[in-house]
Amino acid sequence: MITCIPDSEVERLIDEDIPYGDLTTHLLGIGESQGRIAFTTREETTLCCTEEASKVLKKCGVTTTFYMPSGTRLPAGIEFLTADGSAQALHAGWKVALNLLEYASGIATRTGRIVEKSRAVNPSISVVTTRKSFPGTKKIAIKAVTAGGALPHRLGLSETVLVFKQHTAFLGGLEVFLGSVSELKLKARETKIIVEADTVAEALLIARSSADVVQLDKIKPAELADTVTAIRSANPNILISAAGGINESNVAEYAATGIDIIVLSSVYFGKPSDIGAKIQPV
Predict the structure, then answer these.
(1) pLDDT per residue as tens, the chain (282 positions)
(2) What is the domain range of residue 260?
């Protein structure tokens, strides 16, 4: 599920950086000189948005000669995208393409490491990401997540049913709501009903209902392992997800508790990948 970013998004990124042309290249008088750009990994990287970086270059007048697809995992020192064109076109697309590659590949690389650490201790676990990506970057963020081997937990409010206490507060509380879950499932037969629990007691109430998934929020791994055992005893068929404060440093501990799904936001925020870009005349 590696998504394709629409051309309109690519054009918006170009317009942000070069709305009225490149003054430096113009004043230097080098615009018509021919050159080549090459992008290279400087560290172990899971690539993302090489397709869109190629589009950026093309829309600026550059011809891509080679690129490796999103999802490719590379060591340091590997050339993965090259293109030819005029100096004017190369400089117009250079930083837009590089910024896109570094930020998207940073998310993909973090995601890949987290998926690897999780499945090393729990091979069947699912790693999914929340909708807490930085506003305006969702399409890029989701592509990066899938390139790294995870999936989105929720793309938005329109396609999932996830019930929080902020919902049940309007329904008379959690216990009252749980009495209506069977009716809710009849209204949304193709959609799993996920209900979040803040405490072990709430988790057991949800497990004894007809909900499909109980989501445990901000419960530490040591307590979570015991909670998972209690939930399995109450309802061996319900799926268990954990969310809240999960990152690369503790994800293996969470995966080892026996949960089915890890939900996290941490992959969106962190260091961009270190990618080199060299422009040379030809």
Answers:
(1) 566 789 999 999 999 999 999 999 999 999 999 999 999 999 999 999 999 999 999 999 999 999 999 999 999 999 999 999 999 999 999 999 999 999 999 999 999 999 999 999 999 999 999 999 999 999 999 999 999 999 999 888 998 999 999 999 999 999 999 999 999 999 999 999 999 999 999 999 999 999 999 999 999 999 999 999 999 999 999 999 999 999 999 999 999 999 999 999 999 999 999 999 999 999
(2) 123-267
Distance CA 55, CA 40 (A): 18
Where b means 16+ CB within 10 Å and e means fewer, 214-226 reads: bbbbebebeebbe
Domain count, the chain: 2
Same domain, 154 and 198: yes
In a domain, 66, yes or no: yes
**For tokens 């948005």, what's the residue?**
49
Is 145 part of any domain?
A: yes
CATH code of residue 36: 3.90.1170.20
- Phi, then psi, of 104 in degrees rounded to 5: -65, -40
